[in-house]
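Morning F.,

Quick status update on the modeling queue. The single chain you submitted on Monday has been processed. Sequence for confirmation:
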Amino acid sequence: MKILFVFLLAVFHLIAAPVETFYGTLEVGEPVLLELIESNPMQRLKKLHQYGVAYYTTHKEEYNRYDHSVGVFAILRIKGMSLKEQIAGLLHDVSHTAFSHVGDYLFRMEEAKDSYQDGIHEWYLKASGIGAILKKHGYEIRDVLPKAGQFEALEKELPNLCADRIDYNLQGAFYRGFLSKVEAKEILDQLVFKEGEWIAPDTEALRKMARFSVFMTMDCWSSPHNYFTSHALSQALRRAVELKLISKDEIFFGVDDDLWKKLIDSKDAQIRESMQKTLQATDYFSIENGGEAKVKLKFRGIDPKLPNGKRLTDSDPIYAKQYGEAKQKIAQGWTIKEKNK
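Structure tokens below.
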């Protein structure tokens, strides 16, 4: 038995390859992971900007869906989660359309609980060839569906932490200057997944990550500006598909910059107007006081659990105030009015 173990260990090191992640270099030897990472659908994510349309308007961080997906995988691997959960984490965003959450607006799901890419995830794994890779290594698509309720470390309801939420807040906070990479790694080192919950220590670095989640909710993810630009870009895409300038396959399997160039270069009057609205949004919309047609978006602030069973808002009154005010504002919504031009 000992000889077999030594042999298997030697084989692992022979086939292992370094995988670069935000949290450091990981040695990965499982053939299924190596093939998935190198697959075209995963490599495509390097050309999908993490913040979608905001990359072209307000949030130009060079941070992509591949960085995030590999980051989620790294967290799950470092914390010792099962291989299936690692695979699910690696693949959880592979079904994003071009411009990421603009797909929610394009397919009119912007106010749904789950994003559009979650709804097409199973189909996408099959259509993209990921399903065939999984099958080759003894897995079925249903084994690695992130929303199936079987991977508690990967997916949790807000305001709880989960590997997905931990990564996009840690990496995002780093790129936005809220955290240093050392601080981000310190937070991850201290996080513990216990009895189905991520438990976080009460540290200043943790507060920085939490404040980032509130900042980005209001400044980007659920801001009126992002709502308006996402709508405008989705209108340009819809018109481009109608004119056969862009195919539906390009939306599902294409990349951001290629489609952006086609839209920017278009001579069609409707597309040009929509792109103008996207790029100069503040000239085209205003926020009105009162009114019934309010836009209500998702509040994505986090409120981590602490070792004593309480949450960060219970022990940090300054953060509790920031968190509560932002949550209330999102719940109230905005009345957004398009200006006549």
